[in-house]
Design a protein that fits this description.
The chain has three helices and six strands, in the order H-E-E-H-E-E-E-H-E. It is α+β, with helices and mostly antiparallel strands.
Length: 146
């Protein structure tokens, strides 16, 4: 049985060391968290995973921790629940949450704990979190198009 996501579970990992300085051009890690909201089995049985309350809690936690985030439109995934059983095909609906963080081991630790918390709360074996290295441009470095 799934349980609500706990904001307190990540509070001790949120500090200035995981935040990217947004007023200068900076190297950053872009984390994309695929939050599962629904599974549909091969037989058509639907299972709700993250609730609206869970999504709102996660939005608040990430916004407070990183001073902002992006929430992308839902995406659909297809796959086997059991790779050895072709009838275990599922369709999954996920909400991508995107956060820019400081490229440090503390950021990785934050997202490892987030992954563990989501897996536990949503009763999932794996919650996918992707990390990409990016460079955020300083606003006055971008030439004017006017």
């Amino acid at each position: 049985m799934a349980k609500p996501i706990s904001a307190a579970a990540l509070a001790k990992f949120a500090n200035d060391d995981v935040r990217v300085p947004m007023d200068v051009g900076a190297l950053a890690w872009k984390y994309t968290i695929l939050v599962p909201v629904e599974e549909v089995s091969f037989t058509g049985e639907r299972r709700t995973l993250a609730t609206v309350d869970d999504l709102e809690t996660l939005r608040g936690v990430l916004c407070d921790s990183f001073l902002g985030l992006s929430i992308l439109p839902p995406i659909q995934g297809h796959g086997l629940r059991d790779p050895l059983n072709p009838t275990s095909l599922e369709i999954n609906k996920n909400i991508p949450f995107v956060v820019y963080a400081s490229p440090t081991s503390l950021s990785d630790k934050y997202f490892e704990h987030l992954q563990t918390e989501l897996q536990k709360c949503l009763d999932q074996g794996v919650i996918l979190i992707e990390r990409q290295e990016v460079f955020l441009l300083k606003a006055d470095v971008i030439p004017s198009l006017a």
